[in-house]
From TrEMBL, chains A, B, C, D:
Keywords: Gluconate utilization, Oxidoreductase. This is 6-phosphogluconate dehydrogenase. InterPro entries: 6-PGluconate_DH-like_C_sf (IPR008927), 6DGDH_YqeC (IPR004849), 6PGD_dom2 (IPR013328), 6PGDH_C (IPR006114), 6PGDH_NADP-bd (IPR006115), 6PGdom_BS (IPR006184), NAD(P)-bd_dom_sf (IPR036291), Pgluconate_DH (IPR006183). PROSITE patterns: 6PGD. GO terms for biological process: D-gluconate metabolic process; pentose-phosphate shunt. Belongs to the 6-phosphogluconate dehydrogenase family. The keyword Oxidoreductase applies. SUPFAM superfamilies: 6-phosphogluconate dehydrogenase C-terminal domain-like, NAD(P)-binding Rossmann-fold domains. The lineage of its organism: Bacteria, Bacillati, Bacillota, Bacilli, Bacillales. Signal peptide: none annotated. GO terms for molecular function: NADP binding; phosphogluconate dehydrogenase (decarboxylating) activity. Residues 167-298 form the 6-phosphogluconate dehydrogenase C-terminal domain.
Length: 298, 298, 298, 298
């Protein structure tokens, strides 16, 4: 198939290579010229603007947006909507908030455009060699795109999830689960680290990946991380986050349901971003007030 | 009444003063001679040893142990048990683990001694001017001690809670609740601190103490703490703990019940004791592994 | 002073009585005629419509909105804004979301109206006999209203908190703290209930209210609740919530801060609203899958 | 090799079959005669008593205990210790608490017996076809047993973890991680279940197992569970637990470290075991006290 790819960052570049490998024709655009040249060397056609990209594709066009969530996605989508024509398809492969995707689906529909929200998992390696995708959007049109998703993903690695919104929603929840699983694994190794025993963490992760109940790709990555830095001395334990975990928690709150493990996984990330907390100061001050317990001075 | 007081630390000294104020006769012992002299100046009789203290009291004796929880309590109790005689009463006013108090109650009973486990709340100020006590032990003998508890506490500030163990158990749970309440208050002020508004925390605590649902002694202490240091700049947010919170959580676990707020209040204290965590390092390393997300280097 | 009161529910009725007691002149409006008649009997003037209420007040008018949060507040505010005149003051005494209050402040300002967001705490009893209020809005105009807040509240029970929004924000956080404190207290009594001891909860709450660290109005209410129903046999443990706790948690998430105790207090409320959970089913099914552990059938 | 197997429950039976497949010689004992007969049919020799089992093995003997944790393990171990001789090896393949295993290691050492604490993961299927084992105990003797562990486990599925205690400790933490991962997965599906979308959970789990970040054996089991019962209508969400999760949490508490995700995973299991909670009753009663909020009657 022929495909337009807008956004050649970490993910977009690898997805393009993946597609080129499978003999798809890629017309790529990015505002970064180096990124454009890099993908051109690999066999992609390039476009200096969204308008040019659209003009280079035959109808009905299929255009994949792979830019940062938030303003970047909104700006690219809005610009793109001005150039595409009825019957064209836009796939947002980023991690947009599902309510925004639903709204983009409606804006697309008004113009006769088919919008697909595609959650993409598997990291950079997955983008290159076989990702996992969850796609919301028109069922009939999805059948047209099936070969594309088949080639981009590992075997059985794509699913049409329902109407627009359902793809990014599912990816959001996937990431919420990921937060919980990662924190669970990390807490486990923290307990090992404080234990009286002298475990080699790479070997622990390795044996857990062979036959145990908790064998998983995340445990394989854990093994790989400990292989590079056996006690993680070189890095700080500051856990950033990029939004999906927060959305998952907020969504659970909106449903008035308790998802404490996903929630706490998020809260501990936030806690790690603060060196000291005002919460802690208040509790320390109170202990001093009633019990005369010493406080530690700054 | 006449009372032996073993232990003249922060709490024992104030309790002794409180008793002397109410015209009780106090025979005090502490291994610290300065502490002994200080209380002697206030009108207490003193004893250089537990043996001497016991010998100075008329039968049936009433002896209050007010030393640190753990080894100190165990050592004093064991020594004391060698000197007291059938019909004497031992009150442990410290924060012993209730199962140890039950065991001390049994060891006392074998010798014909009445053991009381007395949880004491209200902080140092309460010890001096009127505490709150929860006392487990023999009901009939408790009636003999009632004037003592009446005088030591604020009006209606004492309760016979049942058999030995029930006093310290109740104090343990009291402290568990205290952990939760303190953390809740502290989190609230932390949110205020991050808000776009410019609250004066002392005034906030003050207004909350006048008519609001959360008016409480802890909020009064919060007001007092902010009066001394309006933004708590001078102290670190490291929250130590002295055992009862942990026992409360462990007890809830033994009952297979969910007490998440008390539990999290404890866990956040532990978290505050670590500058950086291995948990955080593992999560940061994993994010780097699958998403190429940057880690912060040490 | 003369005051218009819109909304004669539980809170508005009591606030009106409170104002009448202090010789303020109240013109009241409610769509419920019985409520109108009830307050008329107590000495209030009444108005059948917002327009009539406005017409009955002398300029500059002071009008207190005390209706349900959400649509009711929005509808009353919008209608009222059509009738008031520059220099008039609107006080929203309900629990609106602070961002909506900020927006109402801006809409008021465009018309030359002074808007105050007033968080009101202390429950129904407080509304009647002396509440606690936290008020955001114009400082100078607030001075004009000071006698009103003085009379409505307990001594020192009101605070001008800053610009519009700061009043409801502070009330929101107050309620977040309240959630945490209540859950902490409740978990404590739950542990007592599972203990081997046989505590009388009313007496426990009573002694804790006399000299202990956790003495508080909430503990007084706990005492009162146990006085009416010693083991709470007659009620279900379903914990509803009315929004402020959720807003507090969402606000903390927006600040990327960890407020785990307030958060868990909210999540346990949500958990209590479900008889059985899908989460539980999935875990039970998984345990069966890998360990052959029996599941309980529906 | 020749091996004695004590305990032919779900796990012991499958492990025996697994060993017989690999041409090991198994002498089995269980107090349940049906279990004995069943394994005899598969080619194992049997023993009616521990004494007989010991007498049937050539020295140095290797005996695997695979009975329930707690009293059963203690009783079997104690009986066995009376019959074995210096140089013999005892492997406890159950999930004993690591401190008890350390103690059994010491008791064994006094008699010249080599004790190994072997954590076994992988469920029943793993026991049959290839488990994952983590073994603490004497390094040199472990080399003698290596062929056994090699054959019992999947490739690379065994690890000598250090001294006695380190095997069961590692398995304990493995299970703690498992609790967290399972709860994270389950919360995710619960959010899906409350969403406006209409996901087929088996397909969701399937796609997540192909290329996503959260692909894992637990997700494969999730897929399998939904294949059998698409909406888990037939089972209740009551989550039992068998001890390791609790030990993990208690161990983290002893290290004064925050492991909130593993902890909450455990607490939600406990919560699921109660239909209604006293905690909930207290909070509901308090809301009624101060706000007049309706309670739901029993």
């Amino acid at each position: 198939m022929q495909l337009g790819m807008i956004g050649l960052g970490k993910m977009g570049h690898q997805l393009s290579l993946n597609l080129l490998d499978k003999d798809h024709q890629v017309v790529a655009h990015d505002i970064n010229e180096d990124a454009l040249m890099a993908i051109a060397k690999q066999g992609a056609d390039t476009a200096a603007s969204i308008a040019e990209l659209v003009s280079k594709l035959s109808k009905p066009r299929t255009i994949w947006i792979m830019v940062s969530v938030g303003d970047a996605t909104e700006n690219v989508f809005t610009a793109l909507l001005d150039h595409v024509e009825p019957g064209d398809r836009i796939i947002d492969g980023g991690n947009a908030y599902y309510k925004e995707s639903i709204s983009r689906g409606e804006r697309s529909k008004e113009k006769g455009i088919y919008f697909f929200d595609c959650g993409t998992s598997g990291g950079i390696e997955g983008a290159r060699n076989g990702a996992c995708t969850m796609i919301g959007g028109d069922q009939e049109q999805f059948e047209e795109l099936r070969p594309l998703f088949h080639d981009l993903t590992v075997e059985n690695g794509y699913l049409h999830t329902g109407p627009v919104g359902s793809g990014h929603f599912l990816k959001m929840v996937h990431n919420g689960i990921e937060y919980g699983m990662m924190q669970a694994i990390a807490e486990g190794f923290d307990i090992l680290d404080k234990s009286p025993f002298d475990y080699e963490y790479e070997k622990v992760a390795n044996v857990w990946n062979h036959g145990s109940v908790i064998r998983s790709w995340l445990m394989e990555l854990t093994e790989s991380a400990f292989q590079k830095d056996p006690s993680l001395d070189q890095i700080k334990g500051i856990m950033h986050s990029s939004g999906e975990g927060k959305w998952t928690v907020e969504t659970a709150l909106d449903y008035e349901m308790a998802a404490p493990v996903i929630t706490l996984a998020l809260l501990m990330r936030y806690r790690s971003q603060e060196q000291d907390t005002f919460t802690g100061k208040v509790v320390a001050a109170l202990r001093n007030e009633f019990g005369g317990h010493a406080v530690e001075k700054n």
